[in-house]
Design brief:
Elements (H helix, E strand, L loop, with lengths): L7 H12 L4 E2 L10 E3 L12 H6 L4 E4 L9 E4 L3 H13 L7 E6 L4 H14 L4 E4 L3 E4 L2 E4 L7 H13 L4 E5 L2 H5 L10 E4 L7 H4 L2 H13 L7 E5 L3 H9 L3 E6 L8 E11 L2 E8 L2 E7 L4 H16 L4 H6 L10 E2 L7 E5 L4 H12 L6 E5 L10 H11 L2 E4 L9 H9 L8 E3 L3 H11 L5 E5 L6 E4 L2 E4 L2 H13 L1
Parallel strand pairs: 1-2, 2-3, 3-4, 5-9, 5-10, 6-9, 10-11, 11-12, 12-13, 17-21, 18-19, 18-21, 19-20
Antiparallel strand pairs: 6-7, 7-8, 13-14, 14-15, 16-17, 22-23
Family: Belongs to the MurCDEF family. MurE subfamily.
Subcellular location: Cytoplasm
Keywords: ATP-binding, Cell cycle, Cell division, Cell shape, Cell wall biogenesis/degradation, Cytoplasm, Ligase, Magnesium, Nucleotide-binding, Peptidoglycan synthesis
Length: 485
């Protein structure tokens, strides 16, 4: 930042006032007299559009990237208001003094499951753990539903400060590609960064796979300070690319990867059934086994990621082996019922995630696989036929319905999806998700398995611009009672 674009004296004076408790806002509607307003631009609006509202509400300081009239409020120019907000958040919450170790997890699939597994592993080892992720923001004594996978910059620093005050040892955070690109995690000193995988998603935002991968790579190349450990999936092609360019790292995966020179945690799947899996882990000269009721190769990979984090934080093989791993909400979550039906709900909403979970179920000797799925509206349209192809590849019956249609016509979404369903043995179309679930339950016979994919832990459905209560798990439970009593 040069003196020609920023008055260093004014900026430093503002930082000192914020350190003393001056409030900072990024929403002009929340501004109160005397506050600082940072004009951050979004994908649709320029941040300066909201300055008049901030001034009307009494803002005393305006931080923005361009010259404009601010009346009696002091204008402070900054070439990047997002970076300015980072410095202001650190000043206000003193997060540069935090002793909490921070683990960031990025990837298309597996972030939530991996965060839960790390939480269970570290808690079992006696650590106090905080988690910020898709399901909730939580630490001992606090929990709230998560409005975003990764909080905004100001809220993130606020929560880190609260965790530090609560003596949390480790914060585990899911880091979305949007959050990385929008600099929401700037100013966070990650102790380790995890990459689960990179498959197609969010191309409506990033444009193409390379740009999407570059956004994920920011967690390793830009945000962690020098020397922070990368924990990267060597089974994933993008992961192998990253392992060759980022050091120090632990590569993890099922099988071996002899061409990589980094430290490696290798897993061998001894058995995988409908009852669980048995894995052998090898790291250098050490080896140990994990026996868990988790099912699926993809969950084997998630377990390896969590174990690699444990190794990085100094846990011994004995501690890793001793941990009991429990289920994760909405991730191959079994819906228990009095009729003995094998029914699972899963958050799979990308082609790769759906293929992973369906291939798992297909390999577990069920007579038939019945899948309820749909695609979200106002999102990447190119993945719609790919979702259909994944469903048809492994399903004996594919039930096509709505997910979160948002402002799109559900029938138009279904038309886009239908293109990929030419190879389905049997299809059912029902735009109403509740009715689709009922039709799937009616279709079940002894020995079948039903997967309801796409929403997982979510307890709502977005139709138009409004959320309405909707839980796949509750809906299928209600359907069973209605049909079978």
């Amino acid at each position: 930042m040069s003196d020609s674009t920023m008055d260093i004296t004014k900026w430093n004076r503002l930082l000192e006032k914020v350190k003393e408790g001056l409030m900072v806002r990024t929403d002009s509607r929340e501004v109160e007299p005397g506050d600082v307003f940072v004009a951050i631009s979004g994908p649709l609006r320029d941040g300066t559009d909201f300055v008049p509202q901030a001034l009307k509400n009494g803002a005393a300081y305006i931080v923005c990237a361009s010259h404009l009239s601010t009346g009696s409020a002091e204008l402070i120019l900054h070439s990047d208001p997002r970076e300015a907000l980072v410095d202001l958040a650190k000043a206000y919450f003193k997060t540069d003094k935090s002793t909490v170790k921070i683990i960031g997890i990025t990837g298309t699939n597996g972030k939530t499951t991996t965060s839960y597994l790390i939480e269970q592993l570290l808690t079992g080892a006696g650590m106090k753990v905080g988690v910020l992720g898709t399901v909730s923001y939580r630490w001992p004594g606090f929990e709230m539903d998560a409005p975003l996978t990764t909080p905004g910059c100001w809220q993130l620093h606020e929560m880190l400060a609260q965790m530090n005050k609560a003596n949390v040892d480790v914060m585990v955070m899911e880091v979305s590609s949007h959050a990385l690109h929008q600099k929401r995690v700037a100013g966070i000193d990650f102790d380790a960064a995890v990459l689960t995988n990179v498959t197609q998603d969010h191309l409506d935002y990033h444009g193409n796979m390379e740009a999407y991968f570059e956004a994920k790579s920011m967690l390793f190349k830009y945000y962690p300070l020098t020397g922070k450990r990368g924990i990267i999936n060597f089974n994933d092609p993008y992961g192998r690319r990253l392992l060759k360019s980022y050091s120090p790292s632990i590569g993890f995966g099922l099988g071996a990867s002899d061409e990589l020179t980094c430290d490696k945690l290798c897993g061998e799947m001894i058995s995988c059934t409908g009852k669980g899996m048995f894995l052998k882990m090898t790291f250098g000269e050490d080896s140990w086994e994990i026996d868990t009721d988790f099912i699926g190769k993809h969950n084997g990979s998630n377990l390896l990621a969590a174990q690699a984090v444990g190794l990085h934080l100094g846990l011994t093989p004995a501690q890793l082996k001793a941990t009991t791993f429990h289920g994760v909400p909405g991730r191959l979550e079994r819906v228990r019922n009095d009729h003995g039906f094998d029914i699972f709900v899963d958050y799979a909403h990308t082609p790769d995630a759906l293929e992973n979970v369906l291939s798992t179920l297909k390999g577990l000797n069920f007579k038939r696989v019945i899948t309820v799925f749909g695609c979200g509206g106002d999102r990447d349209k190119t993945k719609r036929p790919l979702m259909a192809a994944a469903a048809c590849k492994y399903s004996d019956v594919a039930v096509l319905t709505s997910d979160n249609p948002r402002t799109e016509d559900p029938l138009e979404i279904i038309n886009d999806v239908r293109v990929g369903m030419t190879q389905c043995p049997m299809t059912i179309e029902e735009p109403d998700r509740a009715l689709a679930i009922r039709k799937a339950v009616k279709e079940m016979k002894s020995g079948d398995v039903l997967l309801i994919a796409g929403k997982g832990h979510e307890t709502y459905q977005i139709i138009g611009t409004k959320k309405r209560d909707f839980s796949d798990a509750l809906e299928v439970t209600s359907a069973i009672k209605e049909i079978y009593g």
